[in-house]
Amino acid sequence: MKHIVAVVVAGLIVIGGGGAVLAASGDAVLATVGDLEITAQEVTDRIQQMPPQYKQAYATEAGRAQLLAQMVKEKLVYFQAKKDAYDTNADVLAELERIKTNLMVRQYIRDTFSKLTVEESELTAYYDNNKAQFTAEEEVGAKHILCKTQEEAEAARQRVLDGEAFADVAKDVSACPSKEKGGDLGMFKRGQMVQPFETAAFGLEKGGMSDPVQTKFGFHIITVYEKTGGGTKSFEEVREDLEQKVAEKKQQQYMDDLIEKLKTEYPVTVN
Predict the structure, then answer these.
(1) Considering the domain boundaries, does residue 262 fall inside one?
(2) What local confidence, expressed as pLDDT, does residue 229 receive?
(3) Which of 5-19, 27-41, 122-136 has the lowest mean pLDDT?
(4) Is the residue at 113 inside a domain?
(5) 75 and 145 assigned to the same domain
(6) Domain, as residue range, for 72
(7) Domain count, the chain
(8) CATH number at residue 156
(9) Sheet of 36-39, strands arranged across
(10) Treating both helix axes as pointing N-terminal to C-terminal, what angle do 150-161 and 166-173 enclose, rounded to 10 degrees?
(11) In a domain, 97, yes or no
């Protein structure tokens, strides 16, 4: 018997839909192909599955209309494939079994992990035993004056000691482009500056000023205006991180135990 397929596409801009595909609610039927319907939610779900670089284009009215037209074509080809008995094709069935296996495994893991709970005592125990993981990385905010010679650097330092603003002296004599900002280098962590500049900067107290420090760039006078980190973050500061770490640890332990148990029930041979 000849299979007649009726196609009714609603709201396409090519026939004057004027925004219906974009504005339609999730359960709105945008197209009917034979006895199959394509809803606005199905179009949205297809867009959400796309790589990020395509989502923006297909989220427009024209993009959704184009995608809907493509989905109509897919349904039409589906009917032809079904007519030719591809629902019993060996390759199709094998692929379906593979997909089914993967879905079952993922859903089992998702459901099982959702039942695992993290107790407050577990969080505090992990925090107390792993405080080194929660140390705030030390940062300093510093300004500097870069000079070609030690004598020039010492003279610049003396001007600051005599009462001139560090930023003003930097703007006047520094050989670094940072002079335009009064020598301000912003906040930085260890490993971001050359040695021995780093050692000198991190060794200063807030508000302190160094003697001339020589690097491959010349001689620096450094002052530190901010210091942060260097201590252990509080329990509340890292609670969210703790919850994730402890949950992941419990999940991994559960899976390790499960796999060992299952190996005794289902012998494994790796060729």
Answers:
(1) no
(2) 82
(3) 5-19
(4) no
(5) no
(6) 7-84
(7) 2
(8) 3.10.50.40
(9) 7-9, 29-33, 36-39
(10) 150
(11) no
Query: How far, in Å, are 35, 69, 139, 201 from residue 8 at the CA level?
Result: 11, 11, 64, 72
pTM of the model: 0.58
Q: Which amino acid is at 269?
A: T
Q: How far is CA 34 from CA 38, 45, 73, in A?
A: 11, 22, 12
Mean pLDDT of the chain: 91
Percent of the chain exceeding pLDDT 70 equals 91
| pLDDT of 4 over the 90 cut | no
pLDDT given for residue 3 in this prediction: 45
pLDDT digits (tens, 9 = 90+) for 65-95: 999 999 999 999 999 999 999 999 999 999 9
SS3 string, 92-114, reads: HHHHHHHHHHHHHHHHHHHHHHH
pLDDT range class, residue 21, cuts 50, 70, 90? low
Q: Residue 22: its pLDDT value, please? A: 58
User: Of 64, 84, 104, which residue is a domain's last?
Assistant: 84
Co-location of 142 and 80 in the same domain: no
Q: How far is CA 256 from CA 15, 137, 190, 251, in A?
A: 58, 33, 38, 9
| Residue 147 belongs to a domain | yes
Residue 16: pLDDT band (50, 70, 90) is very low
